[in-house]
Amino acid sequence: MNSKKIIIIAVAALLVIVIAVVAVVFIFGNKSSAPVPPQEEKVVDSGERFYFSTGELYCNIKESKTSIVSISVVVVTDTQEMSDELTKAPAVINDLVNSTVRSHTLEELQSDDGYDTLKQEIFDGIVETYETKHVVEIFFEKFVIQN
Prior knowledge:
Layout: H1 3-28, E1 50-60, E2 68-77, H2 80-88, H3 90-102, H4 106-110, H5 114-130, E3 135-146
Helix pairs in contact: 3-5
């Protein structure tokens, strides 16, 4: 073969290899511009607890004209900021507790799992309303059904 042909073939092959390498780097190596999905909030539990109390609330019971619930709910958080948020607008929690109690009949509240079900629904409602993982638990300081 002629030396000119060999040089032309070598340059063409080198050019194809360079184009292929550039294409691979461009297609697969440019991942930094891709949008990064938001990471879930990481909650580090310091062990410290903060408490917010609704005080005593009186709630009507669904389908009852004479019975009411006297209830006091304490919300436990793991950050001062979350406790402060609850303190800023206590009416939000009070309304949530009231509407949750009012959604149950006397029979449901007096059932074996009525207390625990109500507690879980109020907890879930607070977590959903405030879109947070900083609410650790709730408990009832007072839960009395008055006929």
